[in-house]
Design goal:
138 residues; mainly alpha; two-stranded antiparallel ribbon; 7 helices
């Protein structure tokens, strides 16, 4: 899954730098070491002035968390991350305050006409004693 915006940036990058094997090549056209990637990431984190404890793995974690918060089915996230077990993917389903704030009551999603019927109805069923009670009675 590659963002169309990122694809445009990468296409421009490839045209400009013309990497021979690795997309981002280190010295002598070789693969960047893990240490080099971490160092580049550390400098980027400092420059962006974001959470100082962020790691390269934080990017993966954030990607998965955002997908789940957007409502993407956990099984799709599992596939995208290459997890064999759904239990591993479930780590990303932690509850966030932002996620909780986005929850809309199913009642709020009902069509307005349902609420109009309820509001204009004078009789409803009392489930507790199975007798009809009129809300129009004085």
């Amino acid at each position: 899954m590659l963002s169309t915006k990122l694809l445009a940036i990468l296409t421009e990058y490839i045209q400009q730098y013309q990497p021979s094997y690795w997309l981002f090549e280190g010295q002598d056209s070789g693969q960047y070491s893990k240490r080099s990637v971490q160092a580049i990431f550390r400098r980027s984190v400092a420059k962006a002035d974001v959470a100082p404890f962020a790691t390269v793995y934080t990017l993966r974690h954030s990607f998965a968390t955002h997908l789940i918060e957007q409502g993407v089915d956990t099984r799709y996230v599992q596939s995208l991350l290459g997890h064999n077990s759904i239990k591993t993917t479930m780590i990303y389903t932690h509850i966030t305050q932002a996620g909780l704030a986005q929850i809309v009551s199913p009642l709020d999603r009902l069509e307005e006409w349902i609420w109009e019927i309820y509001a204009t109805s004078c009789v409803y069923q009392d489930v507790g004693c199975n007798k009809k009670i009129s809300c129009c009675q004085k």
